[in-house]
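Practice problem. Given the sequence and the SMILES for zinc ion, write out the predicted structure.
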Amino acid sequence: MTRCLFCFSSYVKKPSWSQLLLIETDSDLCLRCLRQLKKLEGDRCRICSRELLVRNWSQDGCCFDCMRWQRDQRTHFLLDKNISVYQYNLFMKETLASYKYRGDAVIAEFFAPKLYDLYMKHFRGYVVIPIPLSPQRLIERGFNQSELLLTGWKNATIHPVLQRKEREKQSKKSRRLRLASFDDNPFSIKKELNNISQKLNKAILIDDIYTTGTTLRQAAYVLKQIGVEEVVSLTIAR
Ligand SMILES: [Zn+2]
Ligand SMILES: [Zn+2]
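Answer key:
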């Protein structure tokens, strides 16, 4: 018997057909969790990696949301690309919530290697920047989930150049207000690192979820202001 890394229920670990066929090797999870963990697949938005359906597909291979970001001069090409691994479904929502608020570091052990593989495949050499928490949130939570996702990233330059100030919850805001939030950006470059841009041509932001894309774009905005040419992001779920 083994305990499932996600739900802690015990299950019998035995080779399944999918494992024999090398389709899925996440045997640290019980079958119930494994079935609910859905990888993003099929046609995806070329910018944010959202699964494209007829109703959210704009002309040039990106979703309506990204099209709106691209149309606005202030947010145009802030974030060059986001890659997410899983669908942000109810299961993922609960899993990530337990991870964030109960401090389940073990889930970082599950997700960190998966993000690392994608990093090595698509963004090798990019300077890795975890999305920071504000000092107050960090004290409340005790750890930064984005930093935990970098566990075991051996061949990566990790440079936590960003800092974050306290602000109200973003989910309460409308899209119009979210656009205004670039004037009141919670992110800034740490003072001691003000002249860092020469070494930072390509940066990759790490966070757990891509929801509206505002947080990542606010962080990207600060980096582009200091001359970083390309800013991409890697997130667990979209
Ligand atoms: Zn489970
Ligand atoms: Zn998109």
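Check your answer against the key. The mean pLDDT is 84.
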